[in-house]
Amino acid sequence: MLVAQRIVEGINKRGNKVGDKLPPERLMLEEYEIGRGTLRESLRFLELQGVIALKPGPGGGPIVQQPDGMGLQTAITLLLQFENAPFRTIVEARTALEPMMARLAADRISEEQLATLKHSVDHMREHIDDEEIFVEMSRVFHDTIAQGSGNALFGYLIHALLDMLDGSAVGMEYPERHRVATCDIHEKIYNAVAAGDAGAALAAMEEHIDAIWRYEEKNYPEVLDTPIAWGSRG
């Protein structure tokens, strides 16, 4: 772990970008004054965290990558599994977090993110009879609000939570009436964010997340009470 931390520190100091190669093994062995086995274990750990990719063969070696949220999702899932926490834990977390994200997004969202948000609303409405597109566009909408908050932690956290509570994965279905209502509230949130109205964005997201909670509590209480398990699919 200590060597892995030093390798990441070196990446930052050198200003390495995604796709850059790290120094050759012999140079890292000299720099860190360690054995080959320790170095390779450290690199393997960083590979598992998504920090590097180990390219085999001549001219290969460790290549800098952009970590994604998979490590965070796995860590949260395992922590909650060992607490025997149910899926409702995730819904409760969203209830607390997403209205704040919408409020921040009203002040911070970029034009590109705003365009993505609008596309998700429009595409959902154009294909309101397609439940698969509904789930996909709903995911895009909430991911974009989180990213648009300007808080990187929110972005990764919501992405992880949505991966854990993917309605299509735990057996939830969404009738057309529910899809239309969701599209309407997404549009209301979008309009508030686009107008830069932080208070309205927060209130609209609170309304939306509360409706999600009530729908799932009414129709899928057994899913909400199911203990979270790594790799589980309802």
From TrEMBL:
Keywords: DNA-binding, Transcription, Transcription regulation. This is FadR family transcriptional regulator. It comes from the Bacteria. The keyword Phosphoprotein does not apply. Residues 1-67 form the HTH gntR-type domain. Transmembrane segments: none annotated. One of its GO terms (molecular function) is DNA-binding transcription factor activity. The keyword Heme does not apply. It comes from Nocardia flavorosea.
